[in-house]
């Protein structure tokens, strides 16, 4: 019996940028520039635009001054203008569409929408590429500019991890409307506590994990990539030396198999640093991997390295007062 093959959607190509909110923007920007070697390329009102040295678009991070930390929005770039039109039609029909935003810096018209949990997202096609000044061009032609000299410079934006009151609802919304594919998940008695979904050969451009008190729309972390696991030891060294909080030292994840570490930037948003991207998914018929929650500690979370602290599972931004733990299984 041939399996029913649902034709995959290849309309979304990649994560394009993330906007994080900060109530300490100067300190947040200092974290990303001094420690992670990112470069401020624009300051417009209460928004600062930053790039990593191998981002080929103008920027990949926006830091927006706000009353509290958290997610501003995340932008996904489609594979073509026609793909953008197809995805917008699906989003309009989903009932979660907001509408077109046409005045954002560094890219063309973006169609905005929310996940069922309320995270603000957008899809776009037209982007401004980084135009490197001649004196800063690298002889390494695949590199958008010379490797910066400050901190341990990250190379590119890798993924986003969101906290949700209902990870399955958010993951399925993005699978159905944007063509994300489920790669790994954590279930507990059939209830989805975490989903790792991607539009590429990476294990995830987006992870969605249970917010234990049922709060909606929170950020778990934004992740930048080094591609060299050893870089994490230098990054951890300078972060510690300069007084930043390291939640999880260099470590290999079971889920995604990536070499990682976690720190908090000064306003409290969690930042993950990836040494490598773990494993690649090349099988067009890859079957999602399901972890039972009981098997995760010591295998799924950290394959090699420190035991994950409780904060990994219950801290996100904005920080919300712990309310009585609702039964998470709907
Ligand atoms: O319990 C597993 C957590 C895995 C997290 C990731 O793979 C990630 O956030 O990149
Ligand atoms: Fe992550």
TrEMBL record:
Pfam families associated with the record: Glyoxalase (PF00903)
Coiled coil region boundaries: none
Gene3D superfamilies recorded: 2,3-Dihydroxybiphenyl 1,2-Dioxygenase, domain 1 (3.10.180.10)
Cofactor requirements of the protein: Fe(2+)
EC assignment: 1.13.11.2
Annotated InterPro entries: Catechol_2-3_dOase (IPR017624), Glyas_Bleomycin-R_OHBP_Dase (IPR029068), Glyas_Fos-R_dOase_dom (IPR004360), GlyoxalaseI/FosfomycinResist (IPR050383), VOC_core (IPR037523), Xdiol_ring_cleave_dOase_1/2 (IPR000486)
Keyword field: Aromatic hydrocarbons catabolism, Dioxygenase, Iron, Metal-binding, Oxidoreductase, Repeat
Keyword Phosphoprotein found: no
Span of domain VOC: 14-126, 156-276
Catalytic activity: catechol + O2 = (2Z,4E)-2-hydroxy-6-oxohexa-2,4-dienoate + H(+)
MF GO annotations: catechol 2,3-dioxygenase activity; ferrous iron binding
Broad class of enzyme this protein falls into: oxidoreductase
Domain of life: Bacteria
Similarity-based family: Belongs to the extradiol ring-cleavage dioxygenase family.
Identification of the protein by name: Metapyrocatechase
């Amino acid at each position: 019996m041939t399996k029913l093959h649902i034709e995959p959607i290849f309309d979304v190509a990649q994560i394009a940028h993330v906007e994080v909110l900060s109530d300490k923007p100067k300190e947040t920007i200092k974290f990303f520039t001094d420690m992670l070697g990112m470069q401020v390329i624009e300051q417009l009102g209460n928004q600062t635009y930053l790039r990593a040295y191998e981002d080929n678009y103008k920027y990949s991070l926006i830091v927006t001054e706000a009353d509290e930390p958290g997610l501003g929005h995340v932008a996904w770039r489609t594979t073509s203008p026609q793909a953008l039109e197809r995805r917008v039609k699906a989003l309009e029909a989903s009932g979660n569409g907001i509408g077109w935003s046409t005045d954002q810096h560094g890219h063309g018209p973006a169609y905005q929408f929310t996940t069922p949990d309320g995270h603000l997202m957008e899809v776009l096609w037209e982007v401004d590429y980084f135009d490197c000044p001649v004196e800063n061009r690298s002889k390494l032609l695949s590199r958008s500019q010379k490797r910066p000299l400050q901190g341990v410079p990250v190379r590119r934006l890798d993924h986003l991890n969101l906290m949700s009151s209902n990870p399955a609802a958010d993951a399925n919304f993005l699978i159905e409307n944007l063509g994300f594919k489920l790669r790994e998940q954590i279930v507990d008695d059939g209830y989805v506590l975490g989903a790792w979904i991607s539009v590429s050969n990476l294990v995830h451009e987006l992870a969605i994990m249970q917010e234990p008190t049922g709060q909606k729309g929170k950020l778990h972390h934004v992740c930048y990539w080094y591609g060299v696991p050893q870089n994490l030891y230098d990054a951890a060294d300078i972060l510690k030396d300069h007084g930043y909080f390291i939640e999880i030292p260099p470590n290999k994840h079971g889920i995604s198999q990536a070499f990682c570490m976690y720190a908090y930037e000064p306003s409290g948003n969690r930042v993950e640093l990836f040494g490598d991207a773990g494993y690649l998914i090349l099988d067009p018929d890859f079957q999602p991997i399901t972890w039972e929650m009981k098997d995760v500690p010591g295998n799924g979370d950290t394959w090699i390295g420190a035991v994950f602290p409780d904060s990994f599972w219950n801290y996100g931004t904005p920080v919300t007062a712990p309310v009585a733990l609702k039964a998470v299984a709907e």
